[in-house]
Each structure stands twice: as C-alpha cells, then as structure tokens.
Amino acid sequence: MPPMALALHDEGETTSELTSHGIEHNLPTASQPSIAELDASRLITTLTTQNRSVPKLGSKEIASQKIATDHMITARWTVESGWDAPELRPYGPLSLMPTASCLHYATECFEGMKLYRGFDGKLRLFRPELNCMRMLKSTTRIALPAFNPDELLKLVAKLCATDGAKWLPKERKGHFLYIRPTMIATDSALGVERPKEALLYVMLVFFPPMDNAARGIKLLASQDDMVRAWPGGFGYAKVGANYGPSLVAQGEARRMGYDQILWLFGPEGWVTEAGASNFFVVWRTKEGKLQLITSDLDEKIVLDGITRKSVLQLAAARLVPGYEGLEPLEIVERKFTMREVEEAIEEGRLVEAFASGTAWFIGAIGQVHFRGKDLKIPMGKKEGEMGAYTTLIKGWLRGIMWGEEEMKTHEWGFVVDEE
Q1: Which tens digit of pLDDT belongs to each residue from 332-352?
Q2: How far is CA 311 from the centre of its chain?
C-alpha cells in the first residue's frame, strides 16, 4: 500500500512538499516581525596592525591553499534580532562551542568565486551577483537564515577592495585570489532543530592554478556503489554535505592516476558532474546534427554552475549561428548516459568534451575510464591543444574575467574599485 499524504496547516499541502514549503517559509516576507536584515552600510571596520607578507608566485605557500589575506568579513545572525552589523576585521580563528550545530548536523554552506587581476590592471569579479543569489538558495535549503544577496555582494566587494591592492598587486596581471563566502550554524544547542544562531563570513585565499590543457583531464566514472546526489536531495546546493562524502572516492581516483570522478547516477548511468564541475560534450547525433550537450537541472542533482550558465549563454549567442567557419551547433540540456558517450566515441561522433567550474575554469577532457575501459576523448589537432569549441568558449570567458581587449567592457565583468 503506498504511503498516504498527510494534510498540513494549509489546505492542499502534503508531506511530499515539506522541503519546498520549509524553504519558502524561511524567506523573509512583509508579514514577518521586524528584525534586522543584512546591511552592508552598517559595516564596522577594524584594520589589521600585523604586517603579513604576500607569498611568492609558484611558492609552496600558495600551493598549500592555507594562506589568506589580511582581513575577513563576518556577520552574526540570531533568530531573535536578525543580523548584527557586519564587520571587516583582521583574518583569524573563529570561536565555536563544541556543541555548535555546524559541527554535528552539516548546517554549513559556501560559495566559490575569484578575484582577478586583469591584464588591463583592474580588479574584477565574474558575475558575482549569481554567486550571491545561489548562496541564498543554499542557506535556505539547510535551514540557515536568508539575506539580501545584494548586501552580500557589497560586503564581498568591500573585502576585495580592501585587500586587493596588496595581495593581488598590479604586477600580478593574469593572477587571482579565491573568494570563499561561508555560512555556518553556530547555535550551541545540541538538539536536532533549526539553528537559532549563525555566522556569515568571507575570506580571500591563495589557490594554485588548475590547468590540464596539455594532456586533458582524466576522469574515472563512478561505480554502482558511489552516489553524489539524488532527486529530492541537495545536490543543487553548495553545502558541505555534498563534498565530504565524496572525498574517499576522489582520493582513490587520484591514487589511480585520475584527476577526478565523473559522477553517474542510477543503473542507467546518467552523467551528472565531473568532480565539482559541470560536464559538457560536443557530439554529432546519429542523424548528423552537431550538438553541445550537458545535463539538465530538472531533478536538482546537478549544481547550477555560474560558469555552466555562462557557457550556455555564450554558446547560444555565438556558436548556434556558426562562428568564423565553425559549423553551427544546437544546445541541448537533457539527461544522457555514459553509454551514449561511449557509443559516440566508438562511432566517431564525439567531437570534444570539457568541464566547467570556478576552480578548473574550462578544462578539456582527455579520457574517461568507464567500466574497465579507457575511453579516449578527442582534443585538438596538435598535441596539447584543446578542441575548437572548447578553445573558443575558454577564450571568451577568459577575456571577460581578465579584461582582455575584446571583452574588457563586457557586462559580466564586475570591476572592483580598490582602496
């Protein structure tokens, strides 16, 4: 006998809608009692008195991913009073009670962004408003407080403006700092319930570049005993619980010589994500039509990547009509299986494949190991070259992010006025 849907307070509500209604009710409305909202204009600034040195390019310090800049942004929230005035303060440890909710119930989420030092000397963010909006989706999915994404963007920009000149100086054109906005539940009650206290913080951290263009990224397709996300879950949100359980498989993949896991779902082997990046394929259908295909977002298994969205929008504007002699292609967002990819390779229909994300940026895929076979993915005509479509897309995005000539005034590039 199938489970019976139980009526809730509102007529028509059922238990199958608990999560979606819970998220909706977590968002602020005009009828709620007046509590303080996140407000960047209330920022309290305390500058550091410690002179810390900037690590050299290519150093072990940068490779460690442990070195942050001088300052961080913090903002405390409580259910009684809402958001305290945010602070820009010296970077340093946080104080948490051992019973803090985030340490026990994975009430933690984050974003991944980059601050770029453009070739024109300017500091830029790439579509940061989309990251701030996505973070709101993540916080409300795990019962953390809502906020105005515009205010978060102002705080991110303020931190970048404060530390950018020293830690990403003009002589480091073409380099970046990684931005990590994070929210954790700091409520010290050990009960399994909605947190009543939370902390938002933002930091800038050194990251090494991740570029496997010379040989292409090597992926290991996940096995039947490995699942990253599932329908009705939280795969679409950037929450810590999406990443910790994947580290065992990721570590094994790297031990075997692969860069990341290509996450498949279900007995059919639906393709979802390449590590923490979105996965794209350019192939020709059996009918001869050229397509750029990626997994859809309908089941909320796949992360709605900012780079993913940008790839699709640029391809729609520039590649669908055909570009400088390249054959026009069709853009398709749908479920597809690894068997379809394998068949396209065997029949010579697969043109190229790439992953997109903040960390990898645009990375050409050179190989996928699937069910005991190494499937070679075509790349460029010469050794070390990417495919033609991957090269174009990467070049356009790079131009926006780094302020290169053709794209330096593109609306997706958010210029930071450094202090």
Answers
A1: 999 999 999 999 999 999 999
A2: 14
Structure tokens at 353: 């494949």
Q: pTM for the whole thing? A: 0.91
User: Read out DSSP for 321-370?
Assistant: S-BTTBPP-EEEE---BHHHHHHHHHTT-EEEEEEEETTTEEEEEEEEEE
Q: Shortest CA distance to 268 belongs to which of 299, 236, 240?
A: 299
- d(CA 173, CA 169) in angstroms, rounded, equals 8
Domains of the chain with bracketed CATH: 25-205 (3.30.470.10), 217-403 (3.20.10.10)
- Asked whether the predicted pLDDT for residue 180 surpasses 80, the reply is yes
Per-residue DSSP letters for 271-336?
EEEETTEEEEEEEE-TTS-EEEEE--STTS-S---HHHHHHHHHHHHHTSS-BTTBPP-EEEE---
The CA distances from residue 103 to 182, 241, 390, in Å, are 14, 11, 40
Distances (CA, A) of 29 to 24, 32, 33, 35, 147: 10, 6, 9, 11, 11
Give the 3-state secondary structure percentages of the chain, helix then strand then coil, rounded to 5: 30, 25, 45
